[in-house]
Amino acid sequence: MKKSKTQKPLVAVIMGSQSDWPTMKEACDVLDAFKIPYEKQILSAHRTPDEMRAFAISARTNGLKIIIAGAGGAAHLPGMTAAYTTLPVIGVPVVSKTLQGIDSLYSIVQMPKGIPVATVAIGNASNAGLLAVQMLSINDEDLAGRIETFRQRQSQDVKESNKLLKK
Ligand code: RP5
């Protein structure tokens, strides 16, 4: 599957601040590697709450399938976005300056029953990208095959590392 600029985004990568971009870029890198059309933008639950709400409310009708949301500190963006849409939201706790992302993790992972956010490890936006790709592969055999190839290469890399270790 070729990604072209005219393809409608299936995934949205949103983040609370420009300072989250170095982390969230890793999710975009995975989506690029699997040629998934996506959009990205800064949306803050605190600094731009109206824009965040408008985005989340219209996400499904805009053709999006999955939202990856990253934030740090009082990381309310993934949970608030999830409150306004029934699309799956994957939360990325971004490392924070004072509490190293423990605050971000707790803010994102401790959602109340009824409004889930699938939370990845602190700073692991790459896994958020992969999880999104795997969700999309539910209805896409070609994509499922490419994930299988990725997994095989990953296993092969471990085997190669072992060979080097034993030399
Ligand atoms: C959160 O506050 C953002 O997601 C970011 O991780 C954190 C710090 O934001 P900046 O002060 O760097 O803009 O809303």
TrEMBL record:
Give the keywords, sorted. Answer: Isomerase, Purine biosynthesis
Q: Where does this protein act, in terms of pathway?
A: Purine metabolism; IMP biosynthesis via de novo pathway; 5-amino-1-(5-phospho-D-ribosyl)imidazole-4-carboxylate from 5-amino-1-(5-phospho-D-ribosyl)imidazole (N5-CAIR route): step 2/2
Iron-sulfur as a keyword of this entry, yes or no, is no
EC assignment: the record states 5.4.99.18
Q: Spell out the InterPro entries in the cross-references.
A: PurE_ClassI, PurE_dom, PurE_prokaryotes
This entry's Gene Ontology molecular function terms read: 5-(carboxyamino)imidazole ribonucleotide mutase activity
Function, as annotated, reads: Catalyzes the conversion of N5-carboxyaminoimidazole ribonucleotide (N5-CAIR) to 4-carboxy-5-aminoimidazole ribonucleotide (CAIR).
Designated name of the protein = N5-carboxyaminoimidazole ribonucleotide mutase
